[in-house]
Amino acid sequence: MSKITIIGAGKTGRGFIGRLSAESNADIQFIDKDENLVKELNERKSFKVSFFGGVREDMEVSGYKAVTWENANLSHSELIIVSVCGPNLKDVGEKLSTLLDKDRHYYIITAENYSKPSKVLKEAINLPNVSVSEATVFCTTIENGGIDISSENYPYLQCDADLLEGYTPEISAIRPIGEFGNFLTRKLFTYNAASCVIAYLGWLKGYSDYAQAANDEQILELLDKNYEVTNRVLCKEFGYDEEDQREFAQLSKNKFCDKTIIDTVARNAREPQRKLGKTERIIGPMLLINKYGESAFVLEMTAAAMLLYDNDGEDEWRKIKAEKTPMEILDSICGIGDNKALCDRILAHYEQMKKEREVC
């Protein structure tokens, strides 16, 4: 039986990582600094994971051990997964450095969407006998009263294989992936780009609820067209298996269209200036699609809607739009000012949307 320690028993740690580990019959130890949470986990002896939309039966996670740092024992753990907020990684690393046996090697994976989390943690541990990888968390989890969890039925935790230095976890749902930087690009161009299509075209159509926008008939048609072309070019560029990429894209669509996940258009559309960078989630895939001679008209429409986007709290974006013309934004922020044909197509959509206030 695989022995795993999960540091951070919050909704991701127990509801996603804990669930994946339990599905592989792993021997689970949770470490958390919250004494009340640890106490409740031990007193209850199990917790329930239910799935959005009732797509599968509820699952009970049991047979685990929960401890605070004072009672943590890592001597038998072959894998440690750290699921804490990014700013807490340094503190976790410092605690681990005092607990790890200097005479054996440890494999650790960070499960937190944070800037260079493996580097932050490895530097804080500061020991030569650790390999620290990092994973991207796609699964949405919500605390469902007490210690029970409501979760998306996402099946994998993808992590950087190169940073694991040859180690393969026994938990089959943990997927080490080589050239992880390419995988993050794949995620950005598939998940994040699709999220922008829904958010900004949804805003243009007057939606505030994200899932309602995602299920709009016109937006769904455009979303599918964007998935189709993006899937093709990502497989050409990075050599991904076509069926695997289709599954990857479908998982994102399932998530965005799930009406039981409460989200807003405004949250997904915030800070368009950050999302319009040349290597970011709209311009990046747009340029890749154009590279292979295909049409990126859905992303061009989305970029146009982003140029129009306005909402309370977007002070920086309002300042940028007040100081720069749309063409100047395409040049200075998007970095495509030298691509006249592309800029012209985006601006044509922009002018028509500005006039008609609808997706066109």
Largest sheet: 8 strands, mixed
- How much helix is in the residues? 40-55%
User: Ranges with pLDDT <50 over ≥5 residues?
Assistant: none
Number of strands: 12
What's the pLDDT, averaged over the residues? Answer: 94
Number of helices: 15
Strand content: 15-25%
Calculate Rg over CA atoms: 22 Å
Strand order of the largest sheet: 5-2-1-6-7-8-11-12
Q: Class by helix and strand content?
A: alpha/beta
- Coarse shape: elongated
The sequence of SSEs as H and E is EHEHEEEEHEHEEEEEHHHHHHHHHHH
Q: N- to C-terminal separation?
A: 56 Å
Task: Kindly describe this structure.
There is one protein chain. Helix 5 (180-204) crosses helix 12 (297-308) and helix 7 packs antiparallel against helix 8 (242-257). The mean pLDDT is 94. The protein is built from 15 helices and twelve strands. An eight-stranded mixed β-sheet has the order 5-2-1-6-7-8-11-12, sandwiched between helices. The chain has helices spanning 11-23, 35-44, 89-99, 117-125, 180-204, 210-214, 217-238, 242-257, 265-269, 272-275, 283-291, 297-308, 315-323, 326-332, 340-356; strands at 3-7, 27-31, 46-51, 59-62, 65-67, 79-82, 106-111, 130-136, 141-143, 149-151, 157-160, 174-177.
Quick structural overview:
The protein has 15 helices and 12 strands. The chain has 360 residues and is α/β, with parallel strands linked by helices.
Summarize the helices and strands and which ones pair or pack.
Layout: E1 3-7, H1 11-23, E2 27-31, H2 35-44, E3 46-51, E4 59-62, E5 65-67, E6 79-82, H3 89-99, E7 106-111, H4 117-125, E8 130-136, E9 141-143, E10 149-151, E11 157-160, E12 174-177, H5 180-204, H6 210-214, H7 217-238, H8 242-257, H9 265-269, H10 272-275, H11 283-291, H12 297-308, H13 315-323, H14 326-332, H15 340-356
Parallel strand pairs: 1-2, 1-6, 2-5, 3-10, 6-7, 7-8, 11-12
Antiparallel strand pairs: 3-4, 8-11, 9-10
Helix pairs in contact: 3-4, 5-7, 5-8, 5-12, 7-8, 12-15
